[in-house]
Amino acid sequence: MTVFDKDTFAVVDLETTGTQRENNNHIIQFGCAIIKHMKVVKTYSFMINPHREIPLSVQNLTGIHDEDVQDAKDFSYYAPQIIDILKDTVFVAHNVNFDFPFLNYELVEHGYEPLTIKAIDTVELAKIAFPTLPSYKLSDLTAQLKIKHLNPHKADSDAYGTAVLLIKIIKRLERLPQATLNTLSSLSQGLIRDTSWVFTSIANEYRKQKHPLAKEYMQVRNIVLQKQTHNLANNNSGEDNHFPINDQTKRKLFANKINYRKAQVDLINHIHQFINNPLERAMLVEAPNGTGKTFSYLFSYAYQLYSSRKLVVAAPTKVLQDQIIEQEIPQMLKITKLDLTAEVVKASSHFIDLDGFVQTIFSNSPNKPTLVLQMQILVWLTETKTGDMDELQLTSYSNPIFTQISHPGDARVSSKFAEVDFWNLARERQEAADILVTNHAYLANHYMDTIWGQNPYLVIDEAHRFTDNVITSRNDALRFESLWGSLSRLRNLLYFSEDSVQNQFSENVEINFLLKNLDPEILDLIYTINDLQKILYSRKEEAINKIILPNGNLELSFPGKVLFPKDSEFLDKMSSFVQKLENVRQKTNQILFNLYQDHSSIPSGDDSLLSDITEEIDQLDYYTEKSYQLTDLISSEDNLDQGGFVLIATNPDDPLSTNLHWMMLDASRELRQIYSRFDHLLFVSATLTSNENFDYAIKQLALEDMDPITYIGKSSFDLNKHLEVLAVEDMPKPDSDEYLESLDDILINDLENKNHVLLLMTNLDKIHDVFVEIVNNPKLKDFEILAQGLSGSNNRIAKRFSIAPKAIIIGADSFWEGIDFHDQGIDLVIASKLPFESPDQPEVKLRQKRLEDKNINVFENDSIPRALIRFRQGMGRLIRGEQDHGQFVILDSRLWTKDYGKIFLQAIPVKVQKVSQKGLKDKLDNYDPR
């Protein structure tokens, strides 16, 4: 029996000619599913004549065409029947704030009273009931929850799918613990329309019955959590932990679990020999995609972990980290039967801080996105064993609540949640683990952490990206404009707003004394910031690169010694600035302390002033830290030589709009410091060689002093049977308008038989032009078209791509190599151009200038090797394993016309087929993946 047995739900979905109801848009289909006793008992579907043309984009989405409705009755005919169907029901829709007002608008326009029944929203309900799903679009929800409905985007089918979804949501909510339901009920009042009624009905009904806490839960204050287990250190017996030297023994171990592949076993044996040679420190391995390189290195190192030494694996992305932890390590342990444990190591900010979260629940009423997120987290806390917020699969962490609920990384000893603190429990598990999996950036910033243990082994996976990731982790900025804004807000809070400290505490002598002294210091600090900005701006003619960005900002690039010459007054002024900033921070802190002492004078319950001042102090802390970093950087000639600087003026004519960014150009010193902490370092990637030698990688990774062993693995399958490479020989020149026309033509006309297509560009600006040209073309109506910079974050794009039955991504930069599509095979990759870096990017210009100054041939030693690695990685998007098949299409005619084209051709592991633009469609249509 369910709480809603006596209620009738009418689950409605409308198809309309457009979203703006006042703009001559009308309903073209009314779909409705009736739920009684938590079962779908009846469905309705009416095709409705809108007396206007249906726009092409709506026809593409819904499959409803003008001829489908031209003989149908209009809305006035169906209105009485619709009113009768919905009478005495609870109105339900997936995005109720569209369907309910639209239907009421049509009713009023035809002379009927608007509906006044309860209306609830399944988007909000689904987010809260199923907080870890990657998407809440109806088609995605029905796929993820295995709800069958025949015709997505048809109103009758969508209404049925939404009805089954609602039943699943209610059943999930009814299984929640009472304390969780009570808190959800009290928070839910801010939800859309009457959606809160669902929570209050369940909570109120369950309060009438005994609802004991299930044994898998524990309750701390009003938060219900999964019971936590405290891991003790492994007491490995050491039995059967000898590496199987004999290949026949390996064959037996692998039997019925994984295929025995000679290429993989050769790789395992080479890594094993390296680990067991005390004279060797480093090894570089290039192993093709799909050869099981991750399993190989895990297998080779695992047998060495019984001497209390850990293996640290660093991967570039969260997706790869998760794959290693969730798939590769379990598989290795299943085969070896070794008694080892593994944990992910990531920043504390990934973990929820329960103290902070509880505070947000009792703070002032939040905005809608924050409210829904709080409710999602309450439900998620009944499910999670890790407290890792990545499980929520959010595509953005920009909500201000994350500054309050992200764990700061302290021990939390005196907290009510100390015993169940997720970060502390994660550290416990990491201390006890034998294998730790982290990411490149975290390793770069925490290589001295005790968590890695004594003399640990290190594997750098996707090693071709390690240097750039270390560099990125060291890049930073001092945004003077933001600091100036922060100081202005602080003055407003202290002196000028209606409820400022000065106005509220005019009687408090001590606070007034502090206020009187502080204001001139804040003003003096602002003048000092302005002086720093003027000094920097005055160097603009020395910049090696000047660009006006699309947003109108002026971007100026400088080598360190050019922006900060020996006689620069900037360093002296910087010392004065740091001192003044520190004084303002301390004195503001003192005022805050006094305010807390005089807390009784603040109007009851109004803590917003205190929290606003605390926020500004946090900002001052942040800028103080950045100021110390910058001072260290420019005080050392070595640092200046290895660094580049970029000035960004938000108003090109105003020196006081200048902000300073800095970047590392040479990471060799940093890399050597990281390596010194580890033993037997293995660098693995599918793309470490250039022209079949490791010279570029060894130099990039600063491994010259280690004289590393190198090994090129063989593919464990015949790539010719999995990969077809087509190069179009008659494309126009890559920078011409004709080229973009030809590209659009290929996308619109040649992709009919493909499902997942990745178009790799080299210019972010051109992505917009291509997207606009193809997004509403009827020939691509079955494809979800996703574009970098236009369709949300790269994470969101990757998620949408893996969920959609047919999709096209138009991407640049990280889509060549940084984004993983492990859950979704790609059947076509199109390389629009050979992936040379844009010389206008500051980091490229500054890095290449530094090489030029050392008389190094930039094209041969930097541009070509980087482009080759990216090109090979782009091809590697297709074939990730033996089960993958696909086509790689190159649209850059320079492959045939330039000398360097031969270098790219040599890097392609299968025979390249020349095709014409006309012949391409035939090749794509008739590709046989078998």
From TrEMBL:
<feature type="short sequence motif" description="DEAH box">
    <location>
        <begin position="461"/>
        <end position="464"/>
    </location>
</feature>
<dbReference type="InterPro" id="IPR014013">
    <property type="entry name" value="Helic_SF1/SF2_ATP-bd_DinG/Rad3"/>
</dbReference>
<keyword id="KW-0547">Nucleotide-binding</keyword>
<protein>
    <recommendedName>
        <fullName>3'-5' exonuclease DinG</fullName>
        <ecNumber>3.1.-.-</ecNumber>
    </recommendedName>
</protein>
<comment type="similarity">
    <text>Belongs to the helicase family. DinG subfamily. Type 2 sub-subfamily.</text>
</comment>
<dbReference type="InterPro" id="IPR006935">
    <property type="entry name" value="Helicase/UvrB_N"/>
</dbReference>
<keyword id="KW-0378">Hydrolase</keyword>
<dbReference type="InterPro" id="IPR013520">
    <property type="entry name" value="Ribonucl_H"/>
</dbReference>
<keyword id="KW-0235">DNA replication</keyword>
<keyword id="KW-0269">Exonuclease</keyword>
<dbReference type="GO" id="GO:0008408">
    <property type="term" value="F:3'-5' exonuclease activity"/>
</dbReference>
<dbReference type="InterPro" id="IPR036397">
    <property type="entry name" value="RNaseH_sf"/>
</dbReference>
<dbReference type="GO" id="GO:0005829">
    <property type="term" value="C:cytosol"/>
</dbReference>
<feature type="domain" description="Helicase ATP-binding">
    <location>
        <begin position="250"/>
        <end position="507"/>
    </location>
</feature>
<dbReference type="InterPro" id="IPR014001">
    <property type="entry name" value="Helicase_ATP-bd"/>
</dbReference>
<dbReference type="InterPro" id="IPR027417">
    <property type="entry name" value="P-loop_NTPase"/>
</dbReference>
<dbReference type="GO" id="GO:0004386">
    <property type="term" value="F:helicase activity"/>
</dbReference>
<dbReference type="Pfam" id="PF00929">
    <property type="entry name" value="RNase_T"/>
</dbReference>
<dbReference type="InterPro" id="IPR006054">
    <property type="entry name" value="DnaQ"/>
</dbReference>
<dbReference type="Pfam" id="PF13307">
    <property type="entry name" value="Helicase_C_2"/>
</dbReference>
<dbReference type="GO" id="GO:0003887">
    <property type="term" value="F:DNA-directed DNA polymerase activity"/>
</dbReference>
<keyword id="KW-0347">Helicase</keyword>
<keyword id="KW-0548">Nucleotidyltransferase</keyword>
<dbReference type="InterPro" id="IPR006310">
    <property type="entry name" value="DinG"/>
</dbReference>
<dbReference type="InterPro" id="IPR006555">
    <property type="entry name" value="ATP-dep_Helicase_C"/>
</dbReference>
<keyword id="KW-0239">DNA-directed DNA polymerase</keyword>
<dbReference type="GO" id="GO:0045004">
    <property type="term" value="P:DNA replication proofreading"/>
</dbReference>
<keyword id="KW-0808">Transferase</keyword>
<dbReference type="GO" id="GO:0005524">
    <property type="term" value="F:ATP binding"/>
</dbReference>
<keyword id="KW-0067">ATP-binding</keyword>
<dbReference type="InterPro" id="IPR012337">
    <property type="entry name" value="RNaseH-like_sf"/>
</dbReference>
<keyword id="KW-0540">Nuclease</keyword>
<comment type="function">
    <text>3'-5' exonuclease.</text>
</comment>
<dbReference type="GO" id="GO:0003677">
    <property type="term" value="F:DNA binding"/>
</dbReference>
<dbReference type="GO" id="GO:0016818">
    <property type="term" value="F:hydrolase activity, acting on acid anhydrides, in phosphorus-containing anhydrides"/>
</dbReference>
<dbReference type="Pfam" id="PF04851">
    <property type="entry name" value="ResIII"/>
</dbReference>
<feature type="binding site">
    <location>
        <begin position="287"/>
        <end position="294"/>
    </location>
    <ligand>
        <name>ATP</name>
    </ligand>
</feature>
